[in-house]
Amino acid sequence: MSDTVSRLEQYRRTFQKHASGEINGEKVMTKRDFLAAIAPGEDFKKIQKEQYELLYHLADRKGQNLVTFDDFVIFQDLISKPDAEYEVAFRMFDLTGTGKVTFDHFKQVLSSHMPSDAVPFDFDCDWLKLYIGHKEGHHELTYQEFTQLIKGLQGERLRQEFKHYDKEQTGFILPEDFKKIILDVAKHKLSDDVIDHLPTLCNLYSGNKVSFSAVVAFHNVIRNIDMVESVIRKAIDASKDKKITKADFLKHAHEASRYTAFTPMETDIIFHFAGVDDDSGVLGLDDFARVLDPRWTQSKQTEITPEKEQTKKRGTLWQIVESAYSFTLGSIAGAVGATAVYPIDLVKTRMQNQRSKVVGELLYKNSLDCFKKVLKNEGFTGLYRGLGPQLVGVAPEKAIKLTVNDLVRNLFNKRQKGDIQFWQEMVAGGTAGASQVVFTNPLEIVKIRLQIQGEQAKNMADVPRRSALWIVKHLGIVGLYKGVAACLLRDVPFSAIYFPAYAHLKKDVFHE
């Protein structure tokens, strides 16, 4: 009840705002008032003013060339119905208001509203005879029968116009004739960009003409544009990089319907007109907007993606600065984390490498005992022995691993123009792990040598403390890569599991 009241109040406000006439103390709408109320800001470019005026005549129930508040409420209630499109059409064709549409009514209304330059409709066609009969006279159509006729009307107009232009009956028409047909039947559903590119449909396949199959496929796309948009949005939401291929579209279209919703040709057409500025075959929502939104313009796309446009304006130098800034923050965060847990790492190394003067006797009983003895014998700084090499390696280690993983993934992406397979994700992760070892193994060697120095000095006489630089010079290149095979066996499988697991947890579990 409250919803009805609020809607009625909304109708009243709209009516009061636009109604400029007055009769017997009651406000009324003129034709101009009515059009301003139902089509605010409309430039009448796609849908002609005359077509909106048809609605005015429908609202003007008494034919007085004015619309009262009651008329306006009845009209608004009509167009708010789920089947409003069919209801409005039926009332336009039902000239006598009897709830039936005759052949003469259908012919009269359709003929009077066909564009002057449109191909005349053949009212003697077999298609129309199937609905209204022929031999024993035309029968009147009920509302339900009329809705089926109207639903198929555009398809019949399409067929008749194609036949008109295909005078040689080759099954092909010129691109400019295809454009005329589509503008006759579906101009209001297309953006200016799609309209301008209509003739390019002939480039989708070999030849310089447009086949009947392509015309029907294009029309099917436009007729089912709501479902097209739904499938595209679901597919993009499920994509990690928010871009999809034809295969992605077909997959989600199949999942959205029990039967095949779109043919490969219809999918080709969608991607053809969406990808006029990008022939990679991997498109995002901004690309599809030119097909989905009849009001799409280049300037509107700029408004939709301000970040992208802003990035272009900033230039390469600014992007480098931003990357350096992010890298610096990551390095600082990594350094803080490494410093916080470094005593634990040192204790782990000491426990793994502990030695004693007495055979069979262990220097440390457990990790806590190790921590206490290091603190007692070497002081607080002893807990951080070897921290320098660790900090030196933190930032490059993460940067190398992430960069190589992204690089390999992108290489796979470019090859197949879509989401990479799981084994390819593992290869990318494993490659990242291997590249990390090349850089971090020398640092690990130096760090461990520094960590165990304190223990060696306590248990072995005349063992001097060495600096990181001395260790590097003493070991040489070969020495710095001792144990690299073991590190590879550890880090390559780890990264091969880590990166895909992380990506799929975000995508499949948390839907990010």
TrEMBL record:
Bilayer topology term: Multi-pass membrane protein
Which Pfam families does the protein's record reference?
Mito_carr
- Indicate whether Hydrolase appears among the record's keywords: no
Q: Which residues form a coiled coil?
A: none
Share an example GO biological-process annotation for this protein.
Answer: malate-aspartate shuttle
Q: Which UniProt keywords apply?
A: Calcium, Membrane, Mitochondrion, Mitochondrion inner membrane, Repeat, Transmembrane, Transmembrane helix, Transport
- Presence of keyword Transmembrane helix: yes
Domain EF-hand: from-to ranges: 81-116, 153-188
| Solcar repeats (start-end) | 321-411, 420-508
Question: Cellular location of this protein?
Answer: Mitochondrion inner membrane
Enumerate the PANTHER family for this protein.
CALCIUM-BINDING MITOCHONDRIAL CARRIER PROTEIN ARALAR1, MITOCHONDRIAL 2-OXODICARBOXYLATE CARRIER 1-RELATED
Question: What protein is this chain from?
Answer: Mitochondrial aspartate-glutamate transporter agc1
Organism equals: Rhizopus stolonifer
